[in-house]
Design goal:
- With about 500 residues, the chain is an alpha+beta fold.
- It folds into three domains: about 220 residues, Multidrug efflux transporter AcrB transmembrane domain (Multidrug efflux transporter AcrB transmembrane fold, Up-down Bundle), CATH 1.20.1640.10; about 70 residues, 2-Layer Sandwich (Alpha-Beta Plaits), CATH 3.30.70; about 160 residues, 2-Layer Sandwich (Gyrase A, domain 2), CATH 3.30.1360.
- Helix content is about 50%, strand content about 20%.
- It has eleven helices and 19 strands.
- The strands form six sheets. Strands 8-12-7-15-16 form a five-stranded mixed beta sheet. It has a four-stranded antiparallel beta sheet with strand order 5-6-4-18. Strands 10-17-14-13 form a four-stranded antiparallel beta sheet.
- Helix 1 packs across helix 11 and helix 4 packs parallel to helix 7.
């Protein structure tokens, strides 16, 4: 029997050494061959600061939104979040019409909100120079691709008295291979025979613009600099099909205007100076890097099938997050100290052994948090602290059964073995009940977007599983080895009897 427990001790020590290596703040991570993994604590939104957004389908309540649509929305929003470069974001469906997004450590909350909620439908629209000359950019266009019912539309009607308007239309789309700029002096003055009337409802009949192609035909979009002007632009690359459509259109419409429309609003309207046959082009429009990157992300990851609106937006500052982390750490240390002191004073030798097992428990659990990794939040830390009590509870049941066996006249080794075996059914059932509760909480948090509930359930469930190992295996092994290697008089006082 002694040899069996010695082998168990060796395995436990190896496990402890591995856990300590993981827990060390200076841990270099795992970088072996194709494995490149940093092992670090992943802090949630409430611990490191960031942005929490609740998005909802911007449709009438009687309009059905299917689960497939919301799943597609979630995937697109998640791709856009990844494009922002946020580490460990949370994107999940909350209910039937909402998406919860948590962005820890985000630097520009306003830009992030705009990037996520915009539909991102890009259209290349056929326009005439007279259309553009009178367009102020505030109206919503109606195109023949997915017509909306706008509240303010572009309406063009005949005028009895023609007027003359000069419009300078700087070319802002070109082949990425060559860009040509027309002389400002040659910009034609446009004799308008039309005027623009903005009306709150589409009466008279608004003009419907023809969509040449959409963002669905894009392969890639990214931010770069125009080599000729050094301005920030969005470079786009078409698919084979889109490139052919674009080539055919620009070849037959040299000198015309091509409207670039995002979410039914005109963002630029360049002249087509030459046929663009390379399958790529540049879009410019007095962009900053931030809004150019936002546009590129929207184009790269596709249009949302359902429009979204922001229902709730909450920003947590990094200072508040660090303060919460410091207070949670202090609470955890105090709780651990109080529990260990109680166990040592009340249960004597078994209590000291249980304290050692509790330290092993805390080390292994925290190591698993880093390896999995588990995103630590304030509720998650609360779940971990609660699991300390669960770990001690198992030892309390075992030691109380041991004391009963000693009072009944059992020898020490018999009392230990009977204490563990007879306490096991109670420990198993109580911990199983806790795990079932954790499963219900996890489902609730995942279904309704309650990430704080989800974080609590994950850390508590993981703690319960580790506590089963430390209470049954580690404590028993330590207790047997102490009795095997140290001569102790079998006096009940050593066991609090």
């Amino acid at each position: 029997m002694k040899q069996r427990y010695t082998l168990r001790l060796i395995l436990i020590l190896i496990l402890i050494a591995a856990a300590v290596w993981v827990v060390l703040p200076t841990n270099p991570g795992i970088h072996i061959g194709s494995i490149d993994r940093d092992i670090k604590v992943v802090r949630g939104l409430d611990l490191q600061g960031g942005l929490r957004i609740l998005l909802e389908a911007d449709l009438p309540e009687d309009t059905e939104v299917t689960s497939d649509q919301m799943s597609t929305v979630r995937n697109i929003v998640e791709n856009r979040v990844n494009g922002l470069g946020v580490t460990e974001p949370i994107v999940q469906v909350a209910g039937s019409r909402r998406i919860l997004v948590e962005l820890p450590g985000i630097g520009n909350p306003e830009e992030a909100v705009d990037t996520l909620k915009e539909t991102g439908l890009l259209e290349f629209v056929e326009m005439t120079s007279s259309d553009f000359a009178y367009f102020d950019g505030n109206q919503i266009l109606i195109t023949d691709f997915g017509r909306p019912v706008p509240t303010q539309t572009l309406v063009i009607e005949e005028s009895e008295t023609p007027t003359s308007t000069e419009a300078e239309n700087t070319p802002i789309i070109s082949s990425t291979a060559t860009e040509s700029t027309p002389d400002a002096d040659t910009t034609p003055a446009i004799s308008a025979t039309e005027t623009i009337v903005t009306t709150p409802s589409p009466s008279p009949t608004p003009k419907v613009f023809h969509t040449v192609l959409t963002g669905a035909q894009l392969e890639n979009a990214y931010v770069t600099q125009n080599p000729n002007t050094n301005e920030i632009v969005v470079a786009i690359e078409f698919s084979e099909e889109g490139g052919q459509i674009f080539s055919d259109y620009t070849s037959t419409h040299v000198g015309d205007v091509l409207g670039i429309v995002l979410d039914k609003r005109l963002i630029s309207a360049p002249f087509i100076n030459e046929p663009i046959t390379e399958g790529s082009a540049l879009i410019s429009g007095n962009f900053t890097y931030e809004n150019a990157n936002s546009l590129a992300i929207q184009l790269r990851y596709g249009a949302l099938p359902v429009p979204l609106k922001v229902v709730e937006s909450k920003t947590v500052g990094p200072t508040l997050g660090q303060d919460s982390l410091d207070k949670s750490t202090i609470a955890g240390v105090i709780g651990l100290g109080v529990v260990m002191t109680f166990m040592a004073l009340y249960y004597r030798l078994p209590g000291v052994v249980a304290d050692l097992a509790l330290l092993v428990y805390a080390t292994i659990t925290f190591a698993l948090f880093k390896v999995i990794p588990v995103t630590l939040t304030l509720p998650g830390i609360a779940g971990f602290v609660l699991s300390l009590g669960v770990a001690v509870d198992a030892n309390v049941l075992i030691f109380e059964r041991m004391k009963e066996e000693l009072r009944a006249g059992r020898r020490l080794y018999q009392a230990i073995d009977l204490g563990f075996s007879r306490a096991w059914p109670s420990i198993r059932d109580s911990n199983l009940s806790t795990l079932i509760t954790c499963g219900i909480l996890y489902w609730f948090g995942s279904t309704f977007g309650a990430s704080i509930v989800k974080g609590f359930s994950v850390t508590l469930a993981l703690g319960v599983l580790v506590s089963l190992f430390t209470a049954i295996t580690v404590t028993r092994t330590f207790l047997h080895l102490v009795l095997d290697n140290i001569r102790l008089t079998e006096h009940p006082r050593w066991f609090g009897v």
